[in-house]
């Protein structure tokens, strides 16, 4: 053996691989056991009123709440993306005043807890009795009582939408900054105008880095809509609370709400995956045909070494 | 300081590109110092010189990717940076600047193909979205251009799937698709692996033979000597030499030219002699 050069000596496994396989298998067994234990414990808990869950999971009241949760999420996402585009553009403006206003906006809306913002918008009527548009310092204009303009639902939409704009603005800005300058220069050299460069070159490339954090953010938004239950806007969480306040079936109703949040989140993740795949075109060298296996090169080396011996 | 124009401009046949006393500063640093040069229609002009001498800046002034502080550049009927309105020259609007750039091709060392579009999509992007050519016609023309640069089998590949040389050839096709008056090459081969340089140079050589007007900033001295109608040597922002390839390479007037050439031609004077 000693006469064989070091690079040609076969490699011994030393039981390392068997031990790894054992640990791997053991962790699965333990995990399955723990999950089974928890599942059985929860399922057979007498306080676990499956009948209550079954009754309420598709109850019209809950479904109306679910619908409203979806509406608030969609509405706030639209406000958030539109506002975020404005915030991102303003944050990158060459004009110092515009840049400062946008920066101030982002810092303010990220600093104040969303719950506080919702309560402020909901209670705005106590501070500004009338809202409207008019010429300052004159009587000309259209005004209406704040509480008529800002229903609880509208107050929530405004609060969450404005908050969302601040976060979305930063995500969009980050995405735009991630586009390589050469790509923009090539578009300029082709004679494309600024708007066209944005939509044809910057936006599709920025989307690659925007979509993952944006998906994250919208999922957070979906769950944050449960905060509007504090003003009784009638969303999923408000409805669930309303039911358990009357029936004392707290955990089953919270599970009903959790179930629907889980379904919506899964749906959003699904959409995110599709979008990610769509915008990833041109980022991978191979077409996904190459299979790489970590152990491959070493094993090949071993084989050839044996042949050499 | 004014570099002498080697051939006087005849009124009857003005040069396609006319650069007159162009100076540009970055703060106190003078990157271009009273540069003047003419490029005739159909001419292949190589600009050579040490790194940081201002060659690339000069090139970027030609297609208005950067501005200059004094002097004037005219391409065809257009005074770069200005448009005539009511008998007066007014600064360009963004749209006018874009329209001008669409007439000047640029192939840069960084290639910069649009990474999210396939090769053919890259080539039809300008014709479709800048010139407003219908999709089918743009695709037909793109296919012909891709055949010309030897990429007929790569229409649907993404840039990342191509070699550096193939990418640069696609970038040349993209520039050609705009049917530009002039094509600028900014060190088009200097970021390529040595074995890929040849295929790109072969394409450029073919374009030269086809009579395109080209201005090339290059470090490929052998290539410059072969394809250039005229060679301009830039040093520290000034044109120190301007003449036919033969004049510049075999009988440089300026000592800095001789110095630069001996640094860049591995065979030194022997190389120059062979060109001569």
Write a compact overview of the structure shown.
The complex is a heterodimer of chains A (309) and B (276). Chain A is mainly α and 309 residues long.
Key structural traits:
heterodimer; A: 309 residues; mainly alpha; two-stranded antiparallel ribbon; disordered C terminus; B: 276 residues; alpha/beta; 6-stranded mixed sheet; 4-stranded antiparallel sheet; 25% strand
Element layout with pairings:
The complex is a heterodimer of chains A (309) and B (276).
Chain A: H1 16-44, H2 50-57, H3 60-91, H4 96-111, H5 114-122, E1 130-134, E2 141-145, H6 146-149, H7 152-177, H8 181-189, H9 194-224, H10 236-247, H11 250-279, H12 296-308
Antiparallel strand pairs in A: 1-2
Helix pairs in contact in A: 2-11, 3-4, 3-7, 3-10, 4-7, 5-7, 7-9, 8-9, 9-11, 10-11
Chain B: E1 17-26, E2 29-39, E3 44-48, H1 55-62, E4 70-75, E5 78-79, E6 82-85, E7 88-91, H2 94-101, E8 104-108, H3 119-129, H4 135-148, H5 164-176, E9 182-186, H6 194-209, E10 214-217, H7 221-227, E11 230-235, E12 238-244, H8 245-250, H9 255-264, H10 269-275
H/E series of chain A: HHHHHEEHHHHHHH
Give the termini separation of chain B. 29 Å
Reported for the largest beta sheet of chain B, the result is:
6 strands, mixed
Mean pLDDT of chain B: 88
Main interface by residue count: A-B, 26 and 33 residues
Quaternary structure classification:
heterodimer
What fraction of the residues of chain A are assigned to beta strands by DSSP?
under 5%
* Count of runs of 4 or more consecutive helical residues of chain B: 10
Give unreliable regions of chain A as ranges: 288-309
Enumerate how many helices of chain A there are, as a single number: 12
- Rg over C-alpha atoms of chain B, rounded to the nearest angstrom: 19 Å
């Amino acid at each position: 053996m000693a006469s064989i050069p070091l690079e040609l000596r076969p490699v011994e496994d030393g039981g390392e691989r068997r031990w790894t396989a054992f640990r791997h298998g053991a962790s699965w067994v333990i995990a399955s056991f723990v999950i089974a234990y928890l599942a059985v414990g929860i399922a057979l808990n007498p306080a676990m009123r499956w009948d209550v869950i079954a009754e309420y999971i598709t109850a019209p009241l809950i479904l109306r709440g679910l619908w409203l949760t979806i509406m608030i999420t969609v509405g706030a996402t639209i406000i958030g993306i539109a506002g975020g585009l404005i915030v991102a553009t303003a944050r990158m403006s060459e004009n110092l005043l515009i840049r400062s206003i946008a920066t101030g906006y982002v810092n303010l809306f990220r600093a104040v807890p969303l719950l506080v913002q919702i309560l402020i918008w909901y209670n705005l009527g106590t501070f500004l009795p009338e809202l409207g548009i008019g010429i300052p310092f004159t009587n000309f204009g259209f005004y209406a009582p704040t509480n008529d303009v800002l229903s609880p639902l509208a107050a929530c939409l405004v609060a969450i939408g404005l908050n969302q704009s601040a976060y979305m603005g930063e995500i969009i800005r980050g995405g735009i900054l991630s586009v390589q300058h050469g790509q923009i220069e090539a578009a300029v050299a082709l004679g494309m105008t600024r708007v066209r460069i944005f939509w044809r070159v910057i936006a599709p490339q920025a989307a690659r880095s925007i979509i993952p954090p944006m998906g994250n953010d919208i999922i957070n938004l979906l769950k944050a809509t449960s905060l509007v239950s504090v003003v009784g806007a009638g969303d999923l969480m408000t409805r669930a609370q309303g039911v358990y306040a009357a029936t004392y079936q707290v955990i089953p109703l919270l599970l009903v709400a959790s179930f629907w949040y889980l379904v919506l989140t899964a749906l959003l993740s699904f959409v995110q995956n599709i979008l990610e795949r769509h915008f990833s075109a041109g980022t991978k060298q191979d077409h996904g045909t190459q299979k790489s296996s970590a152990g491959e090169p070493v094993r090949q080396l071993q084989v050839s070494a044996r042949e050499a011996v | 300081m004014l570099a002498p124009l080697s051939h006087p401009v005849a009124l009857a046949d003005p040069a396609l590109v006319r650069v007159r006393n162009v100076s540009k500063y970055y703060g106190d640093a003078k990157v271009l110092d009273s540069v003047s040069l003419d490029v005739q229609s159909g001419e292949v002009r190589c600009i050579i010189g040490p790194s940081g001498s201002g060659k690339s800046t000069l090139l970027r002034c030609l297609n208005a990717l950067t501005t200059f502080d004094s002097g004037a550049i005219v391409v065809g009927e257009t005074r770069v940076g200005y448009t005539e309105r009511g008998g007066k020259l007014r600064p360009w609007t963004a749209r006018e600047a874009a329209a001008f750039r669409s007439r000047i091709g640029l192939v840069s060392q960084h290639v910069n193909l649009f990474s999210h579009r396939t090769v053919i999509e890259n080539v039809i992007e300008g014709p479709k979205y800048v010139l407003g050519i219908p999709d089918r016609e743009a695709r037909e023309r793109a296919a012909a251009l891709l055949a010309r640069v030897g990429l007929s089998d790569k229409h649907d590949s993404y840039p990342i799937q191509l070699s550096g040389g193939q990418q640069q050839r696609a970038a040349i096709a993209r520039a050609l698709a705009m049917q530009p008056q002039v094509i600028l090459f900014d060190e088009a081969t200097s970021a390529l692996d040595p074995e890929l340089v040849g295929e790109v140079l072969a394409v450029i050589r073919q374009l030269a033979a086809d009579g395109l007007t080209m201005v090339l900033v290059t470090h490929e001295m052998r290539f410059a000597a072969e394809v250039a109608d005229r060679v301009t040597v830039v040093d520290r922002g000034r044109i120190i030499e301007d003449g036919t390839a033969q004049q510049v390479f075999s009988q440089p007037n300026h000592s800095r030219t001789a110095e630069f050439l001996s640094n860049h031609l591995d065979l030194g004077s022997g190389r120059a002699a062979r060109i001569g």
